[in-house]
Amino acid sequence: MIGILTNILLIVEQPFTVKHRMSDRIITPSKDPVELGDYDISSTGPLHLNDEPCVARLITYSSSGQEDQFRSGVRARDRKCVISGRVNNLIQLNMWPAFHAAHVFPLECGNLWCEFNYGRWVTNMDDAVGISKINSTQNGLLMDASLHNLFDQYLFSINPDDGYKIISFFPDDMTIDGRILDPVCRDPTDPNHVSDELLRWHFRQSVLANMRGAGEPVFESDFPPGTDKMAVLREELYGKERFEMEIESRLRSVG
């Protein structure tokens, strides 16, 4: 908790104290779960909530040759859900109906990828440049299809600075909170291992999306046939941004 406050949520110039309101107990850095309740933060200097915007995203699927290679590479490396530990019993038949290769950094935010040179965090594609590195296996994780949308909407994440612990930001119906990211995807001797920096980026976005005020909206992703998708987007908070991402995603699939 203290690490999240100091590294992501708060902008402080002086030391600060966190107290559990009911017990008046001072909270110190610890790996123990935080007790539910209200907490008060005080400091001798200025204390501000970080207003850094969270990067909205869509659920992303492979739709081009490069993305097909990404999917195949992530499957070959992980071979199971690295979040839940669930094994693919159909692997001998090369069938993956219940598993998705998820991008850690979203495909539809390619402009941000290039603007901030996030490709520098990809080390297994030295000859590639620009946006192409976004489809590196180092930007991917294999997970249950049911977890993919939750991951893309920042409802859970992995903290590489806390032993790769999985943190759920929603009621943990999937029983993944507190699990450890499977080592198969993060072996440092494997040049295709998932990037710690990209995991760190995703964890930061998840904290910003879920731990400030009421949190960021969870976008609708289930559109039955006949749904006026554009009408739904018009009614959503950040609908304009999401509409632009939808257009970019569709253009990418035919590019």
Describe the structure.
The chain is an alpha+beta fold. α6 runs antiparallel to α7. The chain has 2 domains: 2-49, no CATH class; 65-210, no CATH class. The chain has 7 helices and 9 strands; from the N terminus they run αβββββαβαβαββααα. The strands form 4 sheets. It has a 3-stranded antiparallel β-sheet, with no helix packed on it. The model has no long low-confidence stretch (mean pLDDT 84). The protein has helices at residues 2-9, 65-78, 110-115, 145-152, 196-210, 229-235, 239-254; strands at 10-12, 16-20, 25-26, 39-43, 47-49, 99-103, 140-144, 156-159, 165-168.
| General form | globular
Order of strands in the sheet with the most strands? 3-2-4
Q: What's the number of helices?
A: 7
CA gyration radius, whole angstroms: 19 Å
Q: What proportion of the residues is helical, as a percent range?
A: 25-40%
The termini sit apart by 43 Å
Q: Outline the low-pLDDT stretches.
A: none
Number of domains: 2
- Secondary structure category: alpha+beta
Mean of residue pLDDT values: 84
Order of helices and strands: HEEEEEHEHEHEEHHH
Proportion of beta-strand residues: 5-15%
User: Care to count the β-strands?
Assistant: 9
Specify the biggest β-sheet.
Answer: 3 strands, antiparallel
